[in-house]
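Need tokens for this chain, all 272 residues.
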Amino acid sequence: MDQAMLSVVRAVEAGATTMKSVIDATGLSRLKIERALTALEKQKLLVRDGQGFRATGLPKAARPVRQCGSCNACCDILEVAGVDKPVNQLCKHWQVGTGCTIYDRRPQMCRSFVCAWLQGHLDDDWFPATSGIVVHFSQDAVNVTVDDDCPDRWREEPYFSKLAEWSLNGIRRIGNRGYATLVVSGTARFLLLGHTVVPDPTLFGTAFLPLTADTFRSWRAKSPEHLQRLHERIAEIERIRQEFGSCAIPETEDDDPRPPYRPALLRLSHHV
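Here are the structure tokens for all 272 residues:
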């Protein structure tokens, strides 16, 4: 059984019953999930019917060995809109010694949620109960939520290097297979671009340009149109780099580039 099939089965066993919930739980593409579902059906390890997906049982050797155990970090650190639970506040339905008091009627988010540590993507340094970091995958992002008690833990090692690695992998993927690496720490939000940390990324997106193999210059877009202009200017910077060997990069964070880009960039770069 390959990793995609195992991830899908784990998500279904954890309560994911729809394509969307499996995508949210695994971070896999729809195509990979469909292939995994078809293979699992052929092996009679999963059933699809009118009620969704149901796992019929894994071979003992393939069954996940990790369990939540004493960890309740997802019930404490994550936001769960279905029960009006804000981020970094223990769920009102959690009781010491009992656990979730609404387990049989818990929201779909709770049913389908499987953190990256439980899926086996991270070693024991990342065990959420001790690291204070919960990592989970969605279709287009690695989502990292940090406990208020250790808000800068994600910047420490071994955590930051792994997050930077994931970020670079997401940036280097081609087309719509790419993904973002996002960190939530208290009220602060960050986007990782390799070793470059972008605070307060906007809803409209972030345009970025590589400076080294793992650092970037970035601009936060103020509108979809602004993002398009930023991308056009970056494309012109890349063309000038190829033509002249170098190109100066505008320093201002909040500048609003307007075409034509080339003359201004050439003057800034002293190529005219």
